[in-house]
Every structure is written in structure tokens, then in C-alpha cells.
Design brief:
By secondary structure, this protein is of the alpha+beta class. 43% of the residues lie in helices and 11% in strands. A two-stranded antiparallel sheet has the order 1-2. It has a two-stranded antiparallel sheet with strand order 3-4.
């Protein structure tokens, strides 16, 4: 059985399957697991809550990078905040996300589970 997800504005593409180890790594550095934020939205390997948590981590990392960049502390890596925001909107449009089940993501810290 093939895993294909269709999006009206995106070409048809097979999605990759990710393991629990990949998810754990993505909670720290999503860009080390996923090529783009939309890859997170497209995968069938994660729940909507996991997808949102990884996107929020990537967003926090990108914001930290922008702060460092404004202080001339980076090598000029381009910001991906717009791309991440687009992926978050696409996820919210495509799948319901239970915000009570999200892992709390704070800037410059390791993620922790939110309490209900």
C-alpha cells in the first residue's frame, strides 16, 4: 500500500515514513529530519498533534535564528518563518489539532509535555 497525499496546490508526491526516533530528533531540530516544513504536513507517520509540535519547534528555532542573525551571530542562513507559517496554516486546514495534546515548545529549550 502506497502512502500518497494529494494537495491541490502541490504536486502529487509519495510521503516518507518516519520512526519514533525521527520524531524525537525532530522535536529538537526538525530541519535535520525534514527537508521542508510541508514535508511534516504531508507525512502519514505523525499525528496532527505531533506535526504541529514539530512545526512549532521549527518556528521557535527559526525565531531564535532571526534574533541571532539580527545580532550578527549567524552565517546568514535565510529565514524559513514564512514557509513554516504556511505549513502551520495548511495543517490546520487539513486536519483537526487537539491543542491540549501538544508538546509545549519554548524558544531555546527542550520541549516538555503540557499538562491538561
Amino acid at each position: 500500500m502506497c502512502c500518497v497525499v494529494l494537495y491541490p496546490r502541490y504536486p502529487q508526491k509519495e510521503t516518507m515514513m518516519y520512526s519514533a526516533k525521527d520524531y524525537d530528533q525532530a522535536l529538537l531540530t526538525p530541519e535535520s529530519v525534514f527537508d521542508s516544513p510541508m514535508d511534516i504536513v504531508k507525512t502519514d507517520s505523525l499525528t496532527p498533534e505531533q506535526k504541529m509540535t514539530v512545526l512549532k519547534r521549527w518556528e521557535a528555532n527559526a525565531k531564535d535564528l532571526e534574533v541571532a542573525s539580527s545580532e550578527s551571530m549567524t552565517g546568514g542562513v535565510p529565514s524559513r518563518l514564512v514557509e513554516i507559517g504556511t505549513a502551520i496554516v495548511a495543517l490546520m486546514d487539513a486536519e483537526p489539532v487537539d491543542e491540549n495534546a501538544l508538546v509545549q515548545v519554548q524558544s531555546s529549550s527542550t520541549p516538555t509535555l503540557t499538562s491538561s
